Structure formats: C-alpha cells, structure tokens
Design the sequence.
C-alpha cells in the first residue's frame, strides 16, 4: 500500500509535523510505503519516507498556495497511490487534517470588534477570498472521506458550517510523549522560574510554536522598549509637554485589559504632570500672565469629557478601547506635525 502525504512546508518542529511523524513511524512498521509531497525536504530522522518535491515559482501567498495545489493535483493524478492525506486545503485528498482549524471561523473571530479598516482589508484580500473558496470546495469534494479533527471545537465548526456528519469527523488529539513530558520535569521548576524571575506561586502559561496572532495570542510590546520610550517620553515632556503620547503607545502595546490600561495610563499621566508642574514652577514658566485663567477655562470641558469617557468605558469592549487609543494617538501625532510646520 502507498500513502501520499501533502504538506507544503514541512518543519520537523511544527505541531502538525510532530503528529504526522508519530503516525508515520507506526505506518512504516506495517510496510506502508509513504510519499511526502512538499516544497522542500529538511533533515529528519524519518529516512524511509520518499520526498516528492513540488516547488513551483510564486510571488505572494495567493500564488504560493494556488501554484502548489495545482502542481500537487497534477502529480497525484499520475501517481499510483492508494490513499491521499493532506494537511493543506486541497480538493484532491481522501483524508484531510486541518492544522489551522477552519479559516472562516478564524476570520470571524479575528474580525470580531475589529475596526472598519481591517474589515475592508480582509474583504479585498484575494488570498482570503481564495482560501475561503477552496475550503468550501474541499468540504464539498466527493473525494473527501474523513476529516481528522484535532479538537472538538474544530469538529463542531466544520459540522456547523459545512454539514459533514459526525462519522466523517473523528477527533484525534495530538499525542504527548510521556518519556519527554512527565512529572519528573518538576525537578527543573525552581531553577527555571528563578532564571526568568517568575514567582513560585505565579500562574505560568508556556506558549510554544509560532503564528501567535493566528492562534489568538496578542503580540505584546517587549519590556526592553520601556527604557528608550521612558527616556524619549521624559525628554519630550520636558521640551514640549507631549511625552504622554509615547507612554500611551507603550502601555497600549503591553496591556490588553481595558481597566488596567485606563488605570496605568491615568497613573502615568498624573505622575508625569506632577513632575512637569514642579519643574516648570521652579523655572518660572507657571507665573506667566493669564496662564492659570486659561487653564481654569478648560476645567468644565475636562469634567464633561471625563464623565462621557467613563460611561463609554463601561459599555465598549477592550478591543474598541485599544482602537480608540490608537486613533487618539494618530490625531495627536498629526496635530503635532501640523503645529511644528506652522
């Protein structure tokens, strides 16, 4: 028996590849010949697999996926294989394992509370249109016998969106190598936490792999940016009184909880304002004529804005809060450029 496996980019460290290699070792022991259709064949301990390179030229993700699917379909049509399993969205497979879940469901989740600009970009992106259309054709293909789902969520998404019955949607969880991952690893717990300064009683989440944005993990600004942003913000505050923009950018990149973001921004602005009042008072800048009178005129509008902002904060989502902060930063930046040019 010959089995054809389709994986466009084969990386031995990937989750789909680890699942695949575990299954292939068992198949090889049962004298199943295996051909892997891929763009490139890296170094791997599975030396008995026959790689079949399909690497047509491409520019951009649309051409990449379309070209690979077309080349593989042509090769499969002329090959003598008994079963075709694909890890890519192709209509010429008997078994499909969706390593990235359902693209339509992922897009729906990504665009939840998304700004209009992102929705427009996704709507006109030809790669998303192609991927959605290919996904629909795949699940409607008469070739498709089964979909190997790696979670119940993926199974339920496919069932709800494409109407496949449960018997064609088996759930096969990724296996865990108990020789590598075992309670014995607890012996390294204190050393690793001490190395990365993680408190012993802190909840720790370990994220391994790539594509964190696609998997729903927000990309946060690294702590190392705190030094240059803090220095630049302080310098701008002293020169122009506008350092709060940089502080807001940094906190928005690191904090996703809207209550924490509001409290942190407010505390930083209060501290920065206090320092500036002291410094400006020492240099005599606060003794200018009518300065305090002008500031007093802003108090009613400030209080009204505080009231409205507090009400809006309670009803809008965290994503909207972050988008509003970015919008305010853009407006502030444009106004600074305009005033500088004037």
Sequence:
């Amino acid at each position: 028996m010959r089995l054809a496996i389709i994986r466009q980019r084969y990386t031995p460290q990937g989750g789909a590849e680890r699942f695949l290699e575990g299954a292939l070792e068992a198949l090889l022991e049962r004298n199943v010949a295996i051909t892997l259709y891929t763009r490139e064949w890296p170094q791997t301990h599975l030396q008995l697999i026959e790689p079949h390179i399909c690497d047509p030229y491409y520019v951009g993700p649309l051409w990449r996926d379309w070209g690979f699917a077309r080349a593989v379909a042509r090769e499969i049509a002329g090959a003598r294989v008994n079963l075709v399993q694909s890890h890519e969205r192709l209509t010429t497979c008997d078994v499909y394992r969706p390593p990235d879940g359902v693209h339509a469901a992922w897009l729906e989740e990504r665009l939840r509370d998304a700004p209009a600009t992102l929705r427009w970009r996704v709507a006109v992106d030809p790669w998303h249109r192609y991927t959605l259309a290919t996904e629909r054709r795949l699940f409607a293909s008469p070739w498709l016998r089964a979909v190997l789902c790696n979670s119940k969520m993926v199974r339920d998404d496919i069932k709800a969106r494409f109407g496949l019955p449960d018997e064609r949607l088996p759930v096969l969880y990724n296996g865990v190598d108990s020789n590598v991952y075992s309670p014995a690893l607890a012996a390294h717990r204190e050393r690793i936490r001490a190395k990365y300064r993680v408190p012993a009683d802190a909840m720790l989440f370990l994220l391994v792999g790539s594509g964190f944005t696609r998997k729903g993990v927000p990309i946060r600004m690294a702590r190392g940016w705190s030094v240059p942003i803090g220095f630049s913000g302080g310098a701008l505050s002293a020169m122009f009184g506008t350092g709060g923009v940089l502080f807001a950018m940094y906190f928005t990149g690191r904090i996703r909880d809207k209550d924490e973001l509001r409290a942190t921004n407010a505390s930083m602005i209060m501290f920065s304002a206090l320092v500036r009042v002291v410094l400006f008072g020492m240099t005599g800048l606060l003794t200018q004529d009518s300065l305090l009178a002008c500031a007093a005129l802003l108090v009613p509008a400030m209080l009204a804005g505080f009231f409205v902002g507090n009400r809006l904060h309670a009803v809008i989502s965290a994503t909207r809060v972050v988008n509003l902060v970015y919008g305010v930063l853009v407006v502030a930046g444009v106004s600074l450029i305009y005033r500088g040019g004037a």
User: Anything to note?
Assistant: Strands lie at 2-6, 33-38, 50-53, 83-86, 95-96, 146-147.
